[in-house]
Predict the structure.
Amino acid sequence: MLHALVLAAEEAPNPILPDPAELIYGSLAFLLVFVVLARFAFPVINRMLQERTAKIQGDLERAERARSEAESELADYRAQLAGARAEANRIIEEARRTAEQLRRDLQARAEQESQATIARAQEEIRAERDRVFDELRSQVGQLAVDLASRVVEKELDDAAHRRLIEEYIEQVAGSGNGKGRSAG
């Protein structure tokens, strides 16, 4: 039996090692397929891989350019925003100064107009006072002449009438302002 086992072991093919003819045919088929693939398929595959690599590289470069442009535009935008804020602050400050100057000008103009109105009013009061004083002088003179003519019972001529009025007014004016003649 031992002998039968040894014979069976020699005749049974080794499952790990292939048959030498299959090994040769398989190697030749592999070489043939490899040559065909190396001649026709591998260049196409390599070209596709290179194109894909170039496309990916180009996409990365475009993305990097877009990112740097975006950062540049963001920096420009921030600079413009800062400039706009500075300009707005300058305009506000200028408007504030202009408003303050306008307020001072209006206040000065109102003060001037007020002073002019007061001066006009005082001048009108003086003129009215002088007019009333002249009118009063005339009336007092007329009353004095009437009184004197009644007392004297004679009519005075115009020149004497004026002289008498002027003397009487000077006497009344002198006693009216506290500077009248003192007795003694």
In short: The first helix runs from residue 2 to 11. The chain is about 90% helix and 0% strand.
